[in-house]
Here is the input.
Amino acid sequence: MPSLESCGARFDSVFTVLSNDRTFKGVLETPLDREPPAFLWVENRRLLTVKRDCIVQLRDVITSRAGEIYAVGASTYAEYGASILYRTHRLFEMNTQVAWSRQYKTVDPLTGLEKESSTNDLGTVWVAMEYTNREDVGRASHIWQERVVCISASELQEGDRIDNREVIRSNVQLGLTVAELR
Here is the structure.
């Protein structure tokens, strides 16, 4: 016998968490164009609605059956009474996988000054690279430099190298790292 409880299942899509190859079901939606996160970025943003006890978490990188790669951002909850019915996460489409490295500094015991010691290769990371329409003058070089905004589920820090570009600014927005590259 048909029931309202099972009618939403026909809209479910299957997704896979890349870090552990576990699958889950959810509904993929497009946010309204009036919402600020939808028009601040070049790439389209999506919403993912899942059951309250779903395995997907903030900062997971997931893939759809169509091969699209997404980073899972902040979520909101739908409540009824004292219970949570479902969660809705913001998804950011990742458009490239790039090399990620971090340079470590040590303190010279003789002089007490910091010096660059070694570069640690942290592997590859999925990111959404978005080229801004503005250029800024570099602080040290006084030359016009192109800026690139990078969105990632990984915790990028200032000084990291992403695809041979240096991270000059990094902060967390909607649960994901938004970094400015030079």
Remarks:
- Helices lie at 36-39.
- The chain has a mean pLDDT of 84.
